[in-house]
Design goal:
The protein is mostly helical and 390 residues long. It folds into two domains: 55-184 and 199-232 and 346-370, Citrate Synthase, domain 1, CATH 1.10.580; 238-341, Cytochrome P450-Terp, domain 2 (Cytochrome p450-Terp, domain 2, Orthogonal Bundle). The chain has 16 helices and three strands. A hairpin with a 2-residue loop joins strand 2 (40-42) and strand 3. Helix 6 runs parallel beside helix 7 and helix 8 crosses helix 16. The longest helix is centred in the middle third of the chain and has 26 residues, at 130-155. The radius of gyration is 23 Å and the shape is globular. The relative contact order is 0.14.
Length: 390
């Protein structure tokens, strides 16, 4: 029999990993995207390479059809997208009415309603064959910027503009929202941001889409679930909250009333959740963040001091978070500043995210349906012990 040495310390029990929220758990396979500490890869292509050399239209084709487009394929895809951008008049009128009668409704909720309305008018809505789902994916990709534009223009008291079939996806999105042709730099920045946001494996909204799709329901229903998940401030809404935080810092620190460091220390003491920092997967920094920051700063420098101040403040906040909490920014932090200096209303940040992530969602829905098994995990019961009713 083995005995312990006299006075030997009792071994500490192994710490049980915190797996709440499926942290650290692998729950399925995908050929669409790989996320690791040093890379984000879409179907074999690394994100920095794509952000520098590919357009969003090319990335959308890659994600939806599974391969890099040839020049002829890309031209045909862009032409098809341009032809699909109009939404039915009944959908346009319903969105206008909702925006007028409920002006405080979140644009993400309005977008969710718009997608749901489109489903009723799509003859292939209930068809989950691969061919039909690809066609529906293309239609949603084309029509979502139009819905976003109708919403924003109505909220501003302006008439919606028709989408422009000759513009690329990013430029048409800005056109639909503003009624102004974007500058080359603004269009490029929006295009890069859409590339960065297009896909990210089993994030909360994509996993929601896959769970819903696993019941063999239709693509529109799964996408509506993804929009609902992305709306939350712990997911897609983080870019909105990050910018609201910077605006609050700017107000509180105006005229030297307090330093940014003092503001941050107060936030730490109050245990405030500071959005745009940290990531479930990336522990050493989100490699998308510096890409978008550099593009946003380039525009800010053209616009002058009123724009660059947000990046100076953001850099200070970022440095304090790294110094005191050892936490890096994620892509939502520079996104907030970048979209703000572009003049985009904060509540539209997350709908713009949808205009990109719809490609990843639809790719995952199609992948789920191609090799389906209903997603039904088990739960560890933590309620009261069994008791008699009488």
């Amino acid at each position: 029999m083995t005995t312990s040495a006299p006075n030997s310390p009792t071994p500490s029990p192994a710490k049980t990993p915190d797996t709440r929220g499926l942290a650290g758990q692998t729950v399925g396979d995908t050929a669409i995207c790989e996320v690791n500490q040093s890379q984000l890869i879409y179907r074999g292509y690394e994100i920095a390479d794509l952000a520098e050399h590919a357009s969003f239209d090319e990335v959308a084709f890659l994600l939806l059809l599974g391969h890099k487009p040839s020049a002829a394929e890309l031209s045909a895809f862009k032409q098809e997208q341009g032809e699909l951008r109009q939404v039915p008049a009944s959908v346009r009128d319903a969105i206008v009415r909702i925006c007028r009668e409920s002006p405080k409704a979140h644009p993400m909720s309005i977008l969710r309603t718009g997608v749901s309305l489109l489903s009723h008018l799509d003859a292939e809505c209930e068809d989950i064959t691969p061919e039909a789902e690809l066609r529906k994916s293309k239609r949603l990709l084309a029509q979502i910027p139009t819905i976003i534009g109708i919403c924003q223009r109505t909220l501003e008291g302006k008439a919606p503009v028709d989408p422009d079939p000759k513009l690329d996806h990013a430029s048409n999105l800005l056109w639909c929202m503003t009624g102004v042709r974007p500058t080359a730099l603004a269009a490029r920045i929006m295009d890069v941001s859409l590339v960065l946001y297009a896909e990210h494996d089993f994030n909360a909204s994509t996993f929601s889409c896959r769970v819903i799709a696993s019941t063999e329901t239709d693509l529109h229903s799964a996408v509506c679930g993804g929009i609902g998940a992305l709306k939350g401030p712990l997911h897609g809404g983080a870019n909105e909250m990050a910018m609201e935080m910077l605006k609050e810092i700017d107000r509180d620190c105006a005229g030297g009333a307090m330093s940014v460091d003092a503001w941050m220390q107060r936030a730490f003491t109050e245990k405030r959740k500071l959005m745009g920092f940290g990531h479930r997967v990336y522990k050493n920094g989100d490699h998308r963040a510096p890409i978008l920051r550099s593009w946003g700063l380039k525009l800010a420098q053209e616009l002058g001091a009123n724009a660059t101040k947000w990046f100076s403040m953001g850099d200070e906040v970022q440095a304090i978070m790294l110094r005191d909490k050892k936490i890096h920014p994620n892509v939502d932090f520079p996104c907030g500043m970048t979209y703000f200096v572009m003049g985009i209303p904060v509540p539209q940040y997350t709908p713009i995210f949808v205009a990109s992530r719809i490609t990843g969602w639809c790719a995952h829905i199609m992948e789920q349906h191609a090799n389906n098994r209903i997603i039904r995990p088990l739960a560890q019961y933590s309620g009261p012990s069994l008791m008699p009713w009488r």
